[in-house]
Write a structure and sequence with these properties.
The complex is a heterodimer. Helices cover 0% and strands 56% of the residues of chain A. Chain B is mostly beta strands. In chain B, the strands form two sheets. In chain B, strands 2, 4, 5, 9, 10 and 11 form a six-stranded mixed β-sheet that branches. The chains are: A mainly beta, B mainly beta. Chains A and B meet through strand 5, strand 9 and strand 10 of A and strand 5 and strand 9 of B.
Amino acid sequence: DTAVSQTPKYLVTQMGNDKSIKCEQNLGHDTMYWYKQDSKKFLKIMFSYNNKELIINETVPNRFSPKSPDKAHLNLHINSLELGDSAVYFCASSTRERQTEAFFGQGTRLTVV
Amino acid sequence: QQQVKQSPQSLIVQKGGISIINCAYENTAFDYFPWYQQFPGKGPALLIAIRPDVSEKKEGRFTISFNKSAKQFSLHIMDSQPGDSATYFCAASIGGNNRLAFGKGNQVVVIP
């Protein structure tokens, strides 16, 4: 069984569109994250949620809006997509007590054309 | 500002050899140093981690060496195998803080 699952795995879309990436974890964790990995493989945290509450919101354009309907889900909605948004987006989860031991999903490769 | 810096950017090692990846950090408040391994098309996975109260930690063929005074730590892969070919990320965090600062990653290629 997949621990942290993201959908879709690949997403190709045109500039200006709005898209969502879904994430679910079945590990019983209470903290979830979104990371962005650019073309040079640099991993940077975007958001962190604990028990559905936003904890970290890095300097991310407000076109990106995370939504956590419950502890097991953290979705990422992106409005007005731009070419520079092309990247691999990773969802991750952990317990609050062991936040540095994150479990990552397989990633969503977003390509904006 | 990158808080954790890795070197070399890429590494090619013969099967059976030792792969060594180095990482340097600036923030002396960091107290947890993990290495993550990422295979193509997959998410990073925690490989091994160390806290600054020890100078070395070994798990199987993987060893972290930690030098607190130099603010450096390194990953050694002994008896490297083609299956070890991956991108390796060092990271650092401050205890209780859920922000992992990742390095830029090192691509390790082990050739038969």
